[in-house]
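[SOLVED] Need 3D model of a two-part complex

Original post:
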Amino acid sequence: MYQYNQHDQILVNERVQQFRDQTTRFLSGTLSADAYRPLRLMNGLYLQKHAPMLRVAIPYGLLSSVQLHKLADISTTYDKGYGHLTTRQNLQFNWPTLESIPDILAELASVQMHSIQTSGACIRNTTSDHLAGIAVDEIEDPRPYCELIRQWSTLHPEFSFLPRKFKIAVTGATHDRAAISVHDIGIQIVKKDNITGFKIIVGGGLGRTPIIGKTIKSFLPKQSLYAYLEAILRIYNLNGRRDNKYKARIKILVKDFGIDKFRDLVEAEWQQTEKTSPLLTSASIASMQAHFALPYKNCTAKKPTNIISTSDDDFKAWLDSNTQIHKYDHLRIVTISVKAPNTAPGDLTDKQMHGIADLAEQYSYGEIRVSHEQNMVFGHVNLTQLHSLWTALKKLNLATPNIGKLTDVISCPGLDFCSLANTTTLSIVDQINKQFSNQQLINDIGDIKVKISGCMNACGHHHVGNIGILGVDKKGEEWYQITIGGAVGFKTALGKIIGPAVAKSDVAATIDKILQTYLLQRHVAETFSETVCRLGIAPFKEAVYV
Amino acid sequence: MYKPQIEHTVINPRPLTKCAQIYKNGANCPDHWHLIQDINDPKSEHLLNTEIAIILPYHQWLQNRHEKLADHRGKMGIHIDNTETVNLSAEDLTLLELICLKFPVSADGRAFSQAAILRQKYQYKRELRAIGDIQIDQLFLMVRCGFDAFALDDDQAAQANHLIAPFTVEYQ
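Solution:
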């Protein structure tokens, strides 16, 4: 993974100093709350329902064991002993004190981490595919470009006061695991005439007005990456709405202008930026790629045949659901399930974080990936070590065999933590876990993504859940609107509402009716998503409401 | 933030102090420029065709630089709203000695892009001034976009030196 050079380290150190100074001035009263607000947001600090919340950047979801140990220590010393993984591959601390934030940032800087631009009207964490570098379907590793974009976007003086937040995602495989179609800018590495370049998608997003992004450029030569991004950001900065924060994202601008007019504006600006922006040279790409070289050499990349025979049913269940093929045949990708029953999705205790960090050293070259689905991934586990890893993960309550299945729920923290929420979400996760505690049933239902958001901001990505659940406030009570048919990937689809919102106590039963319908009507080997695609929502709607 | 010598400025009007100042080269110094909101307003008459340094509205500059302003002997500059698309000719760039860009509220960052366009596309080399609701913690970003003069009040100017260059390295 990327190792800071002196330049990188000085930047984060000076940023800590700057924020320490700003926080001191705020606490002493010489800086007003209004003036402090954008500054603290640009350092990831929210003032939330119960306590300040700090969002730490995990660039493109990649962490070292050393860094994870430090996050664990911070959670012990400054927080209540846990951290929360987000749908953008970051980690949140829910209980730090405001006064301690500069010290926390100093601790982060000591392990090459920061919280820069994890909030605010600026360019946020550039996210990616949690299987980057190791996926069988990879065309090219997107992470070097993520790091280059991270540097380009960090403290960019022109783009620090945008109309609203700006999110970029990059994927380099034939399956999009980075949800690029619902980002402000989505970048896909593509091949044309045997060279790779970028397909650029713009104006996607979830939230109040979910929109699937449109292609602005089908093939951009790599060297023009900075110039093109600058052109898009400049057109957005100048033209995005400033009068209404609910209409200020680039997706609204692209929708209002239409993609063709928007493209014309960007291309005209690009004529200019191409002259003044630095080129992304092959030398700098190669130099960055060296940071992401896999830690093992001379391997055979061929599709493995079935890997391990075992008579241990529990181990087999875990192998089947929580591990997957690696591009090299002696290795396997392991997903650490942060979705155990009776836990909040994506929450890790300090003990678990230390445990994962140690296991990563032992089993996966000291490297951990954070997925968008609030789980962690070990990218390089030797086949012969899977059983002992599983044993260790079980002790940490991180081996629930549910990845990609019903109880691998993606959920925002909801009303229990977030001042924006209309409803609780953790209560719904709980209901689902209790209603569907039978592992056989879960396996039978198979691949399905349930995504829950506690309000229209859609941090739980409910629009793109196979089953999406949105908490709504109806006369002060918690009600839940159910959608089905959502999906992420290159065939991104937004879920359709099946009917009126259901009462809180009915949610699990409603999900049950939907799933029973699926089990009754599916064709052989058809996933839930495929059945919905084939049948439409009518039979499900009938099952729930009639 | 801008303290006018004339009555018309509407951006965050502050009580008049003894003279207008502008923060340049590390300190607040007297500002000899006069910002005109409308050259057709009779109250602005006395400033035209004089030796006085005047800052004109962008569109009025474009319309009048060969007419009403042709005989003005003093320096001339323009102020551009942050909703405008900047479009200057080579001749404009030789005649203009000051450009003011605006921050109606500090969160409205359009002028950062206007500044970048002026410095990069137009290669504008003279004074580029930030006026309006400026937060001193934004100064270091403004400097990097090409601003070299800022309308700050005395309190802000006193703190500005400490905050204007917090980084010794940068990524872009």
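Edit: Chain A touches chain B at residues 7, 10-11, 14-15, 17-18, 21-22, 31, 35, 38-39, 121, 151-152, 154-162, 234, 237-238, 242, 272, 276 (CB under 8 Å).
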